[in-house]
């Protein structure tokens, strides 16, 4: 049986346009991967009759309804009540959920506010979906078939993406695969690239990205990181896998070290992996990126064995005091210059005693640009055992983008250096 | 009459998750500005029965239905046909639309493909909305009241945002303002809070967040930052403003320095503003946050006059070498301890010669926790002219959240210190 699904997002902040719903989009992709087709998205404001109507109408057209949002502790969180009303049942307390919520507060050294008690209420006959990522458990509710309509499964999840996504992947996805799985295997593989533009990559891949080709290969770009997504279908997992792997092999051949990873990899996860494999240490000296390289690296757990730390040398005094960049050098060439990037990197490497170090100096804007040194001009120095490399970039972009692209480029230089035999 | 609106986005690429619908969000904001409340968004795949059902069901709950997408020339563009089916009428050719479409192709030096002829078809009784921005005209269809439901106005617009937006602003908005214009002015004001949980804030605001109250006050939380959104309506801008200001005044009274800003403010923008007003300088010593505080601060342009820089002291050696934290102190109390947070903050202040400095040390996880020092334990030290403050936090959260909440808390301590007379 091919299931038809509907996704219902709840929240006046969504229908009023204050926030953009991204959960429905994410869930659609996840369900598509399992062969479950999402035919409807509904977004509904925080009113009880509106939510009940949306839940009820969904049963006329969908076998599976996934609801996000409205599970918080406040008065405008109405999902629990609406589900009970739709199903014609009472709300009852689930003791183990109550214990879990109290525990979450206890671990933060706080007592549970009385309001949060409502998060342990469930429509009679439904099952709680334990949520290790937050206080609100999800709800699993089976609505039996009636003379007018088939059976419908309702699953309510928290609206916060940080809680919703892992909860779906861990607790919901396997159960849905078992129940609605179609027998047609759809495999998605993503390769992540850095160091060439979208159109150049498309050129190098030739026929691969043509529409209608199978497997399908899509390209998306986000702040200079390019993702190639291969979608292969087969009657068995092996068949789909083999088709996908053939394309992946071709992409690696064509793009070489432009491919830095797969699936959810970021440059920092690849750098962390390479640092560990090569048993090398890294330190950072950041001016215009303001600590962003350090922040990205320290998003990777276990990095502490290889990332020794850094200096955010935002002021010239910090460059001199903490990195040993001669004041005279800054005076002569300016703080944004290849000479200062080099001195920052070498000074940082000496200070931290690291194997590798990067020095980044640039003009993030919007102010501070001149004719010869425009906003977006960035120098990155990389000091390593073999010497020092300096690269110049010119990002015509706004402040946040200049920072992010500079940080990524620095990480990419570290990656390429670590790849060398 | 206050109109209730529904927005229907049509396209399988949306329900399947290949594209993210941003039109509904944009239209919601535009309608809200006119006092028209959007209570429902529906997204529906390209199937005739599905679209007809969505259009039909919308009439049970909305006075105004705006449809985007499905007006192109290809076989999966079904909006015209679905509107005719719903209204129980035929599709008829509109000659002036046909002339317009032929003209668009002529001006591009091409003859009109036969397919595009369907774009000149309209449900009988509806009016074309000429579209100077593309080939597909919009559709204006009045569905009269029936015994079961009130009258509903349907407006179909192209799905391409580049065509939809100007067409709405030029051709639709003035007509809607005239028809549904309540003469009612709607004002939105947002206050941003840090330092108390969502339910605690709601408690302190008492009646304010009660549903149905006017003005309406909504609460949303994102990584411990709480937003309070006041929506006030009045017969004049002045009346609406006065109502909103009364609530804002009350919120300030009740929450005091928990309110850190308004509208788009983030803690770092408020800190940057206060540093500038008080003419103070700041430096940072970050362990578990890995440079995130520096990154957030340097997202604010112009911060370089007041943020001197920082040290990412990820390794113990960096704490000792660059911040002067005695190795013996780390040995005795551990790197994650109030003593080390204090020494990091004071060492950082001395090194950078700043007025204020923060020192942050903690266990971001998922590894590295012990029974006495669990994952999420964070100490923040704040060194200032008057001495040093140390605070302890226990975030039961995953790595990224521990980092972000710790960084925000550090910024908040700086803010509170700068607020002192």
Automatic annotation (TrEMBL), chains A, B:
Gene3D superfamilies, A to Z: 3.30.70.2860, CinA-like, MoaB/Mog-like domain
Superkingdom to which the source organism belongs: Bacteria
Family to which the UniProt record says this protein belongs: Belongs to the CinA family.
Protein name, as recorded: CinA-like protein
SMART domains linked to this entry: MoCF_biosynth (SM00852)
Membrane-crossing residue ranges in chain numbering: none
InterPro entries: CinA (IPR050101), CinA-like_C (IPR036653), CinA_C (IPR008136), CinA_KH (IPR041424), Competence-induced_CinA (IPR008135), MoaB/Mog-like_dom_sf (IPR036425), MoaB/Mog_dom (IPR001453)
Pfam families: CinA, CinA_KH, MoCF_biosynth
Domain MoaB/Mog positions: 6-179
Record-linked CDD domains: cinA
């Amino acid at each position: 049986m091919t299931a038809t699904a509907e996704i219902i997002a709840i929240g006046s902040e969504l229908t009023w346009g204050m926030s953009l719903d991204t959960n429905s989009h994410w869930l659609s992709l996840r369900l598509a991967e399992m062969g479950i087709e999402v035919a409807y998205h509904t977004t509904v404001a925080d009113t009880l009759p509106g939510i009940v109507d949306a839940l009820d109408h969904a049963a006329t057209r969908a076998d599976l309804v996934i609801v996000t949002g409205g599970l918080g502790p406040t008065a405008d969180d109405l999902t629990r009540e609406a589900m009970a009303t739709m199903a014609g049942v009472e709300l009852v307390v689930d003791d183990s959920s109550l214990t879990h919520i109290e525990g979450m507060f206890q671990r933060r050294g706080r007592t549970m506010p009385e309001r949060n008690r409502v998060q342990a209420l469930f429509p009679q006959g439904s099952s709680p979906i334990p949520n290790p990522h937050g206080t609100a458990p999800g709800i699993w509710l089976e609505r039996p078939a009636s003379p007018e309509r088939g059976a419908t499964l309702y699953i309510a999840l928290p609206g916060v993406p940080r809680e919703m996504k892992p909860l779906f992947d861990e607790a919901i996805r396997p159960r849905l695969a078992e129940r609605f799985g179609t027998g047609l295997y759809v495999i998605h593989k993503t390769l992540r690239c850095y160091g060439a533009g979208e159109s150049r990559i498309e050129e190098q891949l030739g026929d691969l990205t043509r529409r209608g080709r199978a497997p399908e290969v899509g390209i998306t770009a986000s702040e200079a990181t390019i993702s190639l997504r291969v979608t292969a279908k087969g009657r068995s997992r092996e068949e789909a896998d083999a088709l996908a792997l053939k394309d992946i092999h071709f992409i690696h051949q064509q793009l070489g070290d432009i491919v830095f990873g797969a699936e959810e990899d970021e440059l920092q996860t690849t750098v962390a992996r390479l640092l560990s494999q090569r048993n090398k240490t890294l330190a950072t000296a950041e001016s215009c990126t303001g600590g962003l390289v350090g922040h990205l690296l320290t998003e990777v757990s276990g990095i502490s064995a290889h990332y020794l730390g850094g200096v955010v040398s935002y002021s010239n005094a910090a460059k001199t005091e903490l990195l040993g960049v001669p004041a005279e050098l800054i005076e002569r060439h300016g703080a944004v210059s290849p000479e200062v990037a080099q001195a920052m990197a070498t000074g940082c490497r000496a200070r931290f005693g690291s194997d590798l170090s990067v020095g980044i100096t640039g003009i993030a804007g919007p102010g501070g640009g001149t004719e010869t040194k425009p906003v977006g001009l960035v120098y990155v120095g990389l000091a390593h055992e073999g010497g020092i490399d300096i690269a110049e970039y010119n990002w015509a972009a706004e402040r946040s983008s200049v920072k992010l692209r500079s940080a990524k480029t620095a990480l990419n230089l570290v990656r390429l250096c670590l790849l060398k035999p």
